[in-house]
Amino acid sequence: QVQLVESGGGSVQAGGSLTLSCSASGYSISTGCLAWFRQAPGKEREAIVSMTAGGRLMYYFESVKERFTMSSDDAQNTVSLQMNSLNPEDTAVVYCAASTDRWCINRPEHFQYWGQGAQVTVRA
Fold first, then answer.
1. From 31's CA, which of 13, 39, 78, 80 has a CA 20 to 30 Å away?
2. What backbone torsions phi and psi does residue 37 show, to the nearest 5 degrees?
């Protein structure tokens, strides 16, 4: 049984930083596309960053480029999302996601496994 367990998140002032981690079990993170999505109130779930199997290609959504960094630790079977220079528009529930496909299609239906979600709140 595949499980993705997220940790981190919380509430910060604008300009602050947060780190999210996603630990996988029953699934090897080196074998498929990995991604972080977010869903703000009243909005659709959107991809913010993804990484093909082995980390060869990465996609960053325009609004998080230069601020967010995705990384992976194959030994720990964990992926992380470092979020810097946060602003109130980043307030959302953030999800890690994993696909059995090596290549990424950055739509929710492409991913079979999801973390439970972590609340990120940025105060003005």
1. 39
2. -120, 160
In the chain, the N- to C-terminal Cα span, in Å, equals 40
How far, in Å, CA of 114 to CA of 23, rounded? 11
Three-state DSSP class for residue 91: coil
Q: Classify the phi-psi angles of 108: left when phi > 0, otherwise alpha if psi is within -120 to 50, otherwise beta.
A: alpha
Distance of alpha carbon 16 from alpha carbon 122, whole angstroms: 8
Which residue type sits at 69?
T
Query: Per-residue pLDDT tens for 6-31?
Result: 999 999 999 999 999 999 999 999 99
77-110 burial, b at 16+ Cβ within 10 Å, e below that, comes to bbbbbebeebeeebbbbbbbbbbeeeebebebeb
Cα separation of 48 and 45, whole Å? 10
Task: Find the helix or strand (DSSP H, E) in which 95 lies.
Answer: strand 92-98
